[in-house]
Amino acid sequence: MAACLFSLTLTACGAAPSPAPDPGHAARVEALARPVVEAEHAAALAIGLVTPNGNEIHTFGVAAPPAEAPHGGTTFEIGSVTKVFTALALALAIERGEVTPETTVDALLPCPAPPLKLVDLASHTAGLPRLPPNFAPADRADPYADYDGTKLCAALATLTPAAGAYDYSNLGAGLLGHALAAKAGAAYPDLVRDRIAAPLGLPSVSAADPAARGHDADGRPVPPWHLDALAGAGALRASAADLVRFVEANLRPPEGPLGAALRATHAPRADRRGGRIGLGWHIGLGADPEVRWHNGATAGASSFVAFDAAAGVGVVVLANQSTPLTDALGAALLDMLRGRPYALDVPKTVAVDEAALEGYVGEYAADVGGQPLVFTVTRDGPRLSVQLTGQPAFRVYAESPTRFRYRVVEAAITFEPGALVLHQGGRDLRAVRR
């Protein structure tokens, strides 16, 4: 099959070209996205827009060192957006007659397990905890890598869940993917490739390491996550171009079992706070009760995918940095496409003279309940970091020449002559320079 070319307007291979996209989108997307990168909330962004008049890709920042710019085909970790592919694999297995809505997970596994319905796992209503009770990562930088089928079976032997209300569970989605893969006699990534990605023309959807290098909330490079038995909860990587095609398939499902399965994932199954849940998809975003969406996060990436079937539009936002702004950016883009008022509040940073920053470097001591607490302030060029006794160092970001905010926690620090003040949880703690 001939390769498709990636450009600002994307069409399926062999399809007639779509009408030209709105030329005003580029400037509006730029106005929303550029501040996110400039304020160091994302090293790179890949944004996809699905509209009745054409599909678009917009990219910003640096995907990989030293200065590789992202493009529509750049792959990112998509984290929990994987769950919608896992739920679709279930819906397709039902369409193919391999399982039924009443099939329970114990019927598919080689070890004893609670009789949980597969559809309840896909809708987070199986009563499982967020993580397995025996989840103890050997490597916290890659926490799911060593969680294998043996550990999963051991955890299932200790659980007695009862299906009921919505309760988001990585364990549940991972267990569903593991069970479906066992039923198919294939590894989870191969199951997704053969049944979903290949038929829909999504070649980038896989568990291969992403091209976009990940960064934590403070912009430090971090490795991608690898998932074993819980792959169905977050193992996949994808490009913005392929997720645009995936959104388009959800808006206009193809004929046949896969199209029927796509439609089945959209149907509400249970209530949740702020909306409802289908198979994988969350239903209801803000004041929009019919928007289907999912987000994802790993240590070094963030993602958001959403669509409004009535309006015929959808958005994809991929970042190679851990940041909550992908959700807000995606929601603003969706409003933009629907002609609604939109805005994005990006926490601003200000430039502070390096001589002033150097003046803050040092140790500051406070007494907390009779125990000494030391703040160690260090500088790396224009970047300031603070380390508390017994904790890692975290970067702080200038809101003014004297006030700096953390991004890893809800806290801030103000520098005073000869002291600093930690503001956290409505309390202030003053530490004096040593």
Describe this structure in words.
By secondary structure, the protein is of the alpha+beta class. It folds into two domains: 25-337, Beta-lactamase (3-Layer(aba) Sandwich); 354-433, Lipocalin. Helix content is 26%, strand content 25%. It is built from ten helices and 18 strands. The protein has an eight-stranded antiparallel beta sheet, with helices on both faces. Strand 16 and strand 17 form a beta hairpin. Helix 2 (82-95) crosses helix 6 and helix 2 crosses helix 8 (257-266). The longest helix is centred in the middle third of the chain and has 15 residues, at 170-184. It is globular.
Keywords:
alpha+beta, Beta-lactamase, Lipocalin, 2 domains, 8-stranded antiparallel β-sheet, 18 strands, 26% helix, globular, disordered N terminus
Task: Provide a quick synopsis of the model.
The protein is α+β, with helices and mostly antiparallel strands and about 425 residues long.
